[in-house]
Design brief:
Layout (H helix, E strand, L loop, with lengths): L1 E3 L5 E4 L14 E3 L3 E2 L6 E7 L2 E6 L12 E10 L5 E10 L8 E6 L2 E3 L4 E7 L2 E2 L6 E5 L4 E5 L5 E4 L12 E10 L5 E11 L1
Parallel strand pairs: 10-17
Antiparallel strand pairs: 1-2, 1-7, 3-5, 4-5, 5-6, 7-8, 9-11, 11-12, 11-15, 13-14, 13-16, 16-17
Length: 195
């Protein structure tokens, strides 16, 4: 099993042993992330057709604790008929006990030509949702577009609110939300568009 961060970089590889599966379709399920009692770290258990495949301790390949965020899990499972199936899941983990009130990341944060920007938004230790908008402003302060994250993720297709491509320049992306205690939180990042 391979684990990638939100930028697509390989973070960890885990091995699990299960016998070759019959012709049934394999089903990958995950436990909820369980934070460590000490406040840092935790575990995520992966199941293949109800059997424990592996347990991830939220560390990278160097044994260092990963950051709070989304991770992509990829499992390659051989079947008894000689074929192989690839299963994928996305999961949010929060192994860092102390977190920033709000986190917003963009990838890429410098865009050449067209494309899109993938955004990840976290309030405390939870993914941002529809009540936590991401607003995109020009460097002059003009509102360009508003995005509504779903499960902490959103994609900006480099268009404004009218569907037209934005010009080259620096843009401010602002996440506004409310933390678990009801207090407002804000995080601002920059993205450069070079056409």
């Amino acid at each position: 099993m391979r684990i990638y961060d939100e930028r697509g970089e390989l973070v960890q590889t885990l091995c699990g042993l299960l016998p070759a599966m019959g012709p049934q379709v394999p089903r990958l399920t995950l436990s909820d992330f369980t934070p460590a009692p000490s406040g840092n770290g935790g575990t995520l258990t992966l199941y293949l057709n109800g059997q424990v495949l592996a347990v991830w301790d939220a560390t990278d390949k160097n044994g260092k604790l990963v950051s709070n965020g989304f991770y992509f899990l990829v499992v390659d499972q051989p079947l008894a008929n000689g074929t192989q199936v690839e299963l994928q899941r996305t999961v949010f983990v929060a192994p860092e006990g102390r977190t920033a009130p709000a986190q917003l990341t963009a990838w890429p944060n410098v865009v050449h030509g067209g494309g899109e920007v993938r955004l990840t938004a976290i309030i405390g230790t939870s993914p941002a949702d529809g009540s936590d908008p991401i607003r995109i402003y020009s460097i002059g302060g003009e509102l360009v577009r508003s995005l509504t994250p779903s499960n902490g993720q959103a994609v900006w297709d480099l268009t404004n609110g009218q569907g037209r491509s934005v010009a080259s320049g620096l843009y401010l992306l602002v996440l506004d939300g409310t933390d678990a205690s009801g207090d407002p939180v804000r995080q601002t990042i920059k993205v450069a568009i070079l056409r």
